[in-house]
Amino acid sequence: MNAMTGGTVDGGDRSRALWSSTAAFTVCFAAWTIFSILGVQVKRDLGLSDFEFGLLVGTPILTGSLTRLVLGIWADQYGGRRVFTLVMLAAAIATWLLSYAYDYTTFLLAALGVGIAGGSFSVGVSYVSKWYPKEKQGTALGIFGAGNVGSAVTKFLAPAVMVALGWQAVAQIWAVALAVTAVLFYVTTKDDPDLAARRARGVEAESFGAMMAPLANLQVWRFALYYFFVFGGFVALALWLPRFYVGVYGLDIVTAGMLGAAYSIPGSIFRVLGGTLSDKYGARRVMYWTFIGSVVCTFLLSYPATHYVVSGIRGPIEFTVAIGFIPFMVLTMALGFFMSLGKAAVFKHIPVYYPGRVGAVGGVVGLIGGLGGFLLPMAFGALNDIIGVWTSCFMLLFVIVAASLVWMHFAIRRMEKAENPALRAPRDLPEAAALANPAPARAPAPDGRTVAAE
C-alpha cells in the first residue's frame, strides 16, 4: 500500500525506484564533492589562502543547498523521476565545463554549476518516500541517503585519476558518469504512485505557496538546525579532512584522500542503520544518541596539541598532550557514524509530521543542512587564518551540536508536558509537590478553633 494514496504498489517498481535513486544520488554526491580533491591541487596551483580554499570547496555546496527547496517542491508537483533526470543532465554539463576553468574566478563559476548535483537530495527524498508506507520510510530513506558514500568514491578514485591523467580528466569522467546515470535512471524507473494517481483523477498539483505553508512552523527550523550539524558538518568535514591531513600530518594528497574516504564511508553507509533504528526505536531516541555521541567526539577532537611545563621538585617537567594519528582517525570515524544515524533520524520525522509536504519541508531542511556544508568550510578556513589552531574546526562543531542537544531536549520536554498534563507536576521532591499543591485554607470555627475548609 502507498502511504498517501492507499493504492497498491508493485514491489518490483518500488525496489527499482529505491535502488535506482540511491545509485543516482551516489553519482550526484560524488560530483558534488569533487572539489574536496580538485580543490587541494587548485589551492597549490593558484596559491590560495585557507579562506579562499574554503570558499572554493563550499561553493558547490551553496548551489546545491539553495536549489533544494525549489527542486523538492517541483518533485512534489511534477514528479521526482522527471526532475531527478533533468538535475543530473544539468550537473553533467556543468561538470564537463569545469575542465575549461583557468583561474580562481572561472573555478568559482564552474563550482556554482556543479553544485546543482547536490539539489538532487530533496528530489530523491520526495520521490522515494512516496513509494513506502510510514512504518518503512525510515529504512527506505536511510538506504537512499547512503548515497552520501559518493563522497568516498571521489576521494578514492579522483586522486589516482588526477595523478595519472590530470584534474581535467576527473571533471570529464565525472560528467560522463552523470549523463549515463541520468539516462539509466529514467529508463529503469516509473512515476511515483502519488503523481500517477493525480494524473488518473485529473487533479492539478498544489500551488507553490500552498507547498510553502509548513515553513511557518518553528519545528521545521528546529529539524533544519539538527541537519545543519549532522549533514552540513558531515559534508564540511568530508571536504576539509584531506586538507587537515595534509596540513597537520604532512600526508600526500592521495593518502589524504584515502583517509578522508575512511571518514566518509561510515558517515554514509550507516545511514541505513540510522533509518532502521528510527523505525524500530523512534527518531527522537536516535537523535539523542546522535547528539550525545557527537558532543563527546567533538569535545575530544577540539583539544589542541599543547606543550606543558610544570615546576617540579628537581626542576621543570615538560610534556606534550596531543591526539595521535590513530586516535584522530578513530574519533573522526566515530563522529561520522553518529552523524549518519542523525541524518536518517531527521528525515524520518518529515514524512510523519508533514506527509503531503515532504518535498517542501525536506527541501528547506536539506537547504539549511547544505548551507552548513557551504558555510562551515569557510568558517574552518577563517578560524585557521585568525587564531591559527587546526582543531578550531572541531571547537565550532562542538558548540553547534551542544546547542542543538539543549534545544531538542527542552523542545521535547515542552511537547511532552503539553500532551500529558501529569508531567507538569513536580517529581521526586515531596516538598516541591507541597508547594505546588498547598493545603486547603482553614476557617475559624464558632468556638474559635480552626478547621479545614471544605
UniProtKB/TrEMBL annotation:
Disordered: region residues: 435-454
Sequence ranges assigned to domain Major facilitator superfamily (MFS) profile in this UniProt record: 1-416
Keywords: Membrane, Nitrate assimilation, Transmembrane, Transmembrane helix
GO molecular function, one term: nitrate transmembrane transporter activity
Main subcellular location: membrane
Membrane-spanning intervals of the chain: 21-41, 53-71, 83-102, 108-128, 140-165, 171-189, 220-241, 253-274, 286-305, 325-346, 358-380, 386-407
Biological process terms in GO annotation: nitrate assimilation
Domain of life: Bacteria
Record's compositionally biased regions (Low complexity): 435-446
Annotated InterPro entries: MFS, MFS_dom, MFS_trans_sf, NO3_transporter
Cell compartments where the protein resides: Membrane
GO cellular component term of the entry, any: membrane
Pfam families per record: MFS_1 (PF07690)
Name listed for the protein in its UniProt record: NarK/NasA family nitrate transporter
Organism annotation: Roseicella aerolata
Organism taxonomic ancestry: Bacteria, Pseudomonadati, Pseudomonadota, Alphaproteobacteria, Acetobacterales
